[in-house]
Design goal:
535 residues, 3 domains, 2 strands, 64% helix
Length: 535
């Protein structure tokens, strides 16, 4: 069964590592069709391997017996709800066949969403060790190197392929992802994990290589000229330090960050609310005067010039959403509806032969395709991920009262408080859980930055694979199935061997052990105040 397990894991590593770099010139679209075919093929293989593994191994299915097994599935409920609502919008779509299979240009029908969901389930139930997570991160790292190298070949004019919009002229790289905004969003997911590798690695040479790749990834990110990506990067940096302020219990930093964020949101709202009024459309004909990277970023201060087309598209989306607000129009039906609202100014700002098939805003996109029910389910799913992710990192600041449940947890908490530091190092740890705690903050930072950038863009296959992958990495740390093996080994040792006293002298119990035993005989739930008496 070792060979089956090896092929099983190798398949999902192929998807994670090769999908961002794979494209072909033998189809109508060098990126969308080929990446879609690659993902569908390997995901189907992955599902069959999962079924074979459950059939031919001793653990034929996840143990769902008991409260602990069912409780571990609670994080999946919001995701199931979103997939169900999206399925309902497909059934009631104006063009159900296209909503299910997807358009030829985008391939983002309900079938594709189902495959992403199954890909997530495979990872959720089969990520069981810290080594598996490390292999995934390293595969992402080497995939990023390939994307970065091709990006620099493009900007230096060394690209052997002659594209219709050569990056040497547009000053915007798209590398193997296929579009500058998509590439920027993909980098927002990857850069935090490269930073995590840099902090984790101890060897100097490897650490230096990681730092070099981290720097080059930021440079390649800036060369995309993506204004939405830049906003996402700033939002990701803000979220990272915002989360640290919660973890470190720095209330002043937390309050100051909250006030600044609130002021920015309110200011942006009042600054741009008049732009959504139809009377402002006539002023949006200035277009994009310069495509150089610096000028594109500077145009953030002039949203009329920098986002003229998107503002018109958002106006169209809002007017269409009002007509089918509950379940929306169904996936992949944007083109058939946006074309009815086409205005000549769009040809001035873009090209005459370009037609809108996306809302270029994740919130509007989800609402348009699946209605307000889909939007609520989508936001519920994302909030659920961030809830469990932040819960893993560390309990937020608050009271210094440590609330525990059960005598075993109480005993462990008491030992942590009264046990000498020198003896704590001898205690067995749970490396899988501790590893999840360390990486969750970086995963959440990437997700947050990515989601912010999507308010000016939309999902594509390479980014969405990592989107669901990060879901699995975050929730897997909360999944009790993933800890069953490690806990089982610990339990066997505890049954076969007497509990070792933590006292330096053998043969008698330490004072800390006696106090822990007294507390373990108390109630099933209790609270113990830390040594610091301050509130």
């Amino acid at each position: 069964m070792y060979l089956l397990s090896f092929i099983f894991e190798f398949t999902w590593l192929l998807i994670i590592g090769l999908l961002p770099v794979y494209f072909s010139l033998n189809t109508f679209s060098a990126w969308v069709i080929n990446k879609f075919a690659f993902f569908v093929s390997l995901t189907i293989v992955l599902i069959f391997l999962w079924l074979a593994k459950m059939i031919f191994t001793e653990s034929k299915s996840p143990d769902l017996q008991g409260r602990s097994g069912l409780k571990s599935l609670k994080p999946l409920i919001p995701i199931f709800i979103f997939i169900l609502v999206l399925g309902c919008s497909t059934v009631f779509s104006l063009r159900p066949e296209i909503s299910f299979w997807g358009s030829y240009q985008r391939k983002f029908g309900y079938f594709t969403w189902l495959l992403f969901f199954l890909f997530f389930l495979v990872l959720f139930f089969n990520l069981k060790t810290e080594k598996q997570i490390k292999r995934i991160v390293w595969v992402i790292f080497f995939s990023a190197i390939a994307v970065i190298l091709y990006g620099f070949l493009q900007i230096l004019g060394l690209d052997p392929i002659g594209w219709l919009e050569p990056p040497l002229l547009t000053k915007r790289v798209f590398s193997t992802i296929g579009q500058p905004n998509f590439l920027a969003s993909w980098f927002l997911l990857v850069i935090p994990l490269i930073g995590w590798l840099f902090l984790k690695e101890k060897k100097f040479l490897i650490k230096s290589l990681i730092f070099l790749v981290f720097f080059l990834s930021l440079a390649c990110f800036l060369l995309t000229g993506s204004r939405g990506g830049l906003v996402g990067l700033m939002a990701g940096i803000f979220f990272f330090f915002f989360a640290i302020s919660l973890i470190k219990r720095k209330r002043k930093m937390f309050l100051a960050g909250s006030i600044i964020l609130l002021l920015l949101v309110v200011s942006l709202f009042f600054l741009n609310i008049f732009l959504l009024h139809p009377s402002s459309r006539a002023e949006l004909t200035t277009g994009y005067k310069n495509q150089k990277t610096a000028s594109r970023f500077l145009s953030l201060s002039n949203l009329k010039e920098g986002g003229g087309v998107r503002i018109i598209i958002w106006q169209h989306a809002l007017s269409l959403i009002k007509e089918r607000a509950i379940l929306g129009y169904g996936p992949e039906t944007q083109f058939f509806n946006f074309i009815t609202l086409y205005q000549p100014v769009e040809g001035v700002l873009e090209s005459v032969n370009n037609y809108t098939d996306r809302a270029h805003n994740d919130i509007l996109e989800i609402t348009f395709t699946s209605g307000f029910l889909g939007l609520v389910a989508y936001l519920f799913m994302i909030i659920n991920i961030f809830y469990y992710g932040l819960k893993q990192v560390e309990e937020p600041f608050g009271s210094k009262t440590l609330r525990v449940k059960g005598p075993e947890e109480l005993r462990r908490r008491v030992e942590d408080l009264i046990e000498p530091e020198a003896l704590k190092a001898e205690r067995p740890e749970e490396p899988r859980q501790r590893e999840g705690n360390k990486i969750s903050l970086f995963l959440l930072t990437g997700l947050f930055a990515y989601l912010v950038s999507l308010q000016f863009s939309f999902h594509e296959i390479s980014g969405l694979v990592y989107f669901w992958l990060y879901f699995a990495l975050i929730l897997s740390s909360k999944n009790s199935f993933l800890l069953n093996k490690a806990q089982g080994h610990v339990a066997k040792k505890s049954v076969s061997q007497p509990e070792r006293a933590w006292s330096p002298t053998s043969g008698r119990k330490s004072e800390g052990e006696n106090r822990a035993a007294i507390f373990s005989q108390g109630k099933s739930t209790a609270s113990f105040r830390a040594t610091d008496p301050s509130p």
